[in-house]
Write a structure and sequence with these properties.
The chain is mainly α. Helices cover about 70% and strands about 0% of the residues. α4 packs parallel to α6, α5 packs antiparallel against α6 and α7 runs antiparallel to α8.
Length: about 270
Amino acid sequence: MRIGINLMLVVAAAFMAAAPAYAQRQSLADRVGTIEQQLYNNSANQDLLNQITELRQQVRQMQGTIEQLQHDSAQLKQGNQDAFLDLDERLNRLEGGAAPVVPPAPGSNAPLPPVPAVQPPAAATSERPPSVHGDAGSLSVSGDERTTYNVAFDALKAGKYDDSAQLFLSFLELYPNGVYAPNALYWLGESYYATRNYPMAESRFRELISRYPTHDKASGGLLKVGLSQFGAGQVEQAEQTLESVVSQYPGSDAARTAQDRLQSIRLGQQIR
């Protein structure tokens, strides 16, 4: 009995002596695992840093490419803009009116360019007598009407558009149904158009078309409606109106100018 007890005590003592060594081995394994994990993390971080450096290099290369493309695009846009302005200038000389304004793109806050000096419309320098088709007797004109009309017309030829607008308004009040009333409406619209008062210009040109649809200035009036819409930034409406000029007055000077203006507007939209 005593021998068995002693044996148990010996075994217990052996286990107690071995426990610290096992604990030490377990602690060392944990420390090695922790160090290995740190080394792995450092390696992963280094890989990440390498990737970031490579991405930065790629971004710099892309920025250089973008800058080159922007430069090339600016040169191309400038060339197209120059071509557009050249075409627009030639069309304006054909039209004989004030230089049109290219409206800003939707959402843009860019101000309109300053109003340039406007020359009198070419057709205003030597206007032919008015003609209302279908009633030759209506061509008889009293001296007072012609004199009043000439005063307004002379102001227009001199480029005094504010004065000519007031004088044509006075003429239309005095002779609302006079023989020169269609011409007065047309040149009143031109007076507003020359000062970029596009809504008022469009209103007078529409009145001309509505009251005198067969007058020889009706085609020019419809053309000016479209150009007034374009000047006011109503590009889609302007294109529709100019297309109407081409279809309603085929072969006329107004139709040719309208067709040229349509091409000019569409070119201007493409290069924005």
